[in-house]
Design goal:
4-stranded antiparallel β-sheet, 22% helix, 11 strands
């Protein structure tokens, strides 16, 4: 006895599913087989087994079972060009995604309100993600550096430095700014073991302070990871202030380094203080 919805010697899928994708099941002349194993033909975006069961309520496949699976495609490998109605058959087409890249953008020029908003608006329009950045005023001039991640592309390489620089040059030039965008290597130097310390220097301004102090730190194996310098006070009697963020190797003799910096401070006529760095709120 044929299940409801089937006619002659062939079981057909309900019209809602049959009209969506070409499909068939085994004919009666091919031998007995459990009709629960519906064989589907078509692209991999065919409906899921749960969807098939729900939409096939007018033709119960449970009513047509046979204990002898003798059909050719009941073996472990289905015939070429057929896909069984299992979840493994739902294959998502592969799409080539080009890797993202990082660019360093530097901006220098006349200071004024709205510079950051203007430049970051261009980055947003280009689909770039601002990952890191620093901005300061150097002698009344605007200076900023940014590390941005360019968006991945589906049909070609990602946004490169010249293209992003061209997009930024219009608004930057209108505000008297010079802008450049350069690629940065994705390889990042591994972080070594060490402790964060802060070195503060202040005193009479004269050439050579930065070089002499950082040279002493380099001889001790310290890595300078941040630096802020500024001349404060009266123009005719400026006081030079420098703050260095450094990473000291764990094997560094702190006492010997402090003695070395104390001697250098006396030679340069400045005050130098070394202390553990405060926790960064960022």
């Amino acid at each position: 006895m044929l299940p409801l919805g089937c006619k002659s010697a062939e079981w057909t899928l309900p019209r809602p599913l049959a009209s969506r994708e070409p499909s068939h099941c085994m004919r009666a002349s091919d031998g007995p087989r459990p009709l629960i194993d519906v064989v589907l033909r078509g692209p991999p975006d065919i409906a899921s087994p749960a969807d098939i069961a729900r939409r096939s309520s007018s033709c119960s496949v449970r009513a047509c079972r046979s204990s002898t699976p003798t059909a050719p495609w009941m073996s472990s490998s289905p015939p070429i060009g057929h896909r069984t109605a299992t979840r493994d058959a739902l294959v998502v087409p592969k799409t080539t995604l080009w890797p993202v890249s990082h660019l360093v953008i530097s901006v220098v020029g006349r200071d004024g309100p709205g510079i950051v908003a203007t430049l970051t608006g261009v980055l947003m329009d280009q689909g770039c993600n601002l990952e890191d950045g620093a901005m300061t005023i150097l002698g009344g001039h605007f200076a900023m550096m940014m590390l941005v991640e360019t968006p991945p592309a589906l049909d070609g390489p990602t946004l490169d430095g010249p293209a992003l620089e061209a997009a930024l040059s219009g608004p930057a030039t209108a505000r008297g700014l010079a802008v450049s965008a350069r690629p940065v290597s994705e390889a990042v130097a591994p972080e070594g073991d060490g402790e964060a310390w802060t070195v503060s220097v202040h005193g009479a301004d004269h050439p050579g302070i930065v070089h002499r102090v950082t040279s002493s730190l380099a001889e001790a194996g310290a890595n300078v990871v941040g630096m802020t310098t500024r001349a404060v006070g009266q123009p005719d009697d400026p006081v030079y202030v420098m703050v260095l963020d450094v990473i000291l190797p764990t094997a560094t003799d702190r006492g010997a380094l402090e003695d070395r910096l104390d001697g250098l401070a006396q030679e340069l006529a400045v005050a130098c203080v070394v202390h553990p760095a405060q926790p960064d709120i960022l």
